[in-house]
Design goal:
0% strand, mainly alpha, 11 helices, single chain, 77% helix
Length: 262
């Protein structure tokens, strides 16, 4: 490992330890997840009995678990980046021997990893107690867990891109809220897209939320190597697009600092 990557690993570990020690914030997220799983489990138990579909709750509870792990584990890194841009703090880091963006992203990944692992562990136990049997085979669980973890990292990358958009936007909170709502709608973060009309799914397929959220979470109830490969391929393509935007915005930041002095 080069010296540069050791620095980013250090940023990751510092953020990881800080997030782990912040028990109040971590416990709040875990409590919200458990309440959500319990509430939706009761809802789908009733619907399953009415439709004579025993075990329907297991599919939707595990689906919801991994969806919320992707959403809730991502820190609000866009706010930190936006503040860095607006306040000029990034000008202090721009000429340092580390990338300002990679430093912030490593910190965000550290916080995300703590939340994701904690929610994955406790949430899986809670879902197992509520449903007794998951809708997938246990040997598939590691693949689903890792795939959703990668999606969470991409989701974190997306929010860092939103933070850098503060170069052009006065307030990025509206954009951040819009992205969150679109993720729930087009990403099927609450219900699988299979329950929506076909025309709606056709629209969703052209958004990054379809790949980052739905295709990955779908592995919970429809696991296959083909579906896993499709999810990986589309996630890679959208990640490339996000990285291209970040590289463009980062060049703008460098130019602004070098020409205007911050």
């Amino acid at each position: 490992m080069t010296d540069a990557w050791r620095k980013y690993a250090a940023f990751f570990m510092i953020s990881f330890k800080q997030s782990w020690l912040n028990k109040g914030n971590l416990s709040g997220g875990l409590l919200f997840l458990i309440i959500l799983l319990f509430t939706y489990n009761r809802l789908w138990e009733v619907i399953g009995l009415e439709q004579d579909q025993i075990g329907l709750n297991a599919t939707f509870v595990w689906y919801l678990l991994f969806a919320e792990m992707i959403i809730l584990s991502a820190p609000r890194s866009e706010r930190i980046l936006a503040d860095d841009v607006k306040s000029g703090t990034m000008a202090y880091y721009i000429n340092k021997p580390v990338s300002f963006f990679l430093m912030r992203y490593a910190e965000a990944l550290g916080a995300m990893t703590v939340s994701y692992l904690s929610m994955g562990t406790l949430g899986s136990l809670a879902a197992l107690l509520l449903t007794e049997k998951p809708p997938f085979l246990w040997w598939q669980y590691p693949f689903i867990f890792i795939a959703c973890g990668i999606s969470s990292a991409i989701n974190t990358l997306l929010y860092t891109a939103i933070g850098l958009s503060a170069l052009w936007l006065e307030n990025i909170r509206t954009l951040s809220m819009a992205v969150q709502r679109l993720a729930f709608i087009f990403g099927g973060a609450i219900f699988p897209l299979t329950i929506y009309p076909e025309w709606f799914v056709d629209i969703a397929q052209w958004t990054p939320f379809y790949a980052v959220y739905y295709l990955t979470i779908r592995l919970v109830y429809d696991f296959s190597w083909q579906n896993l490969g499709e999810a990986c391929l589309l996630n890679f393509l959208w990640t490339s697009g996000i990285v291209a935007f970040i590289a463009y915005a980062y060049r703008k930041l460098n130019r602004r600092v070098n020409v205007y002095g911050g």
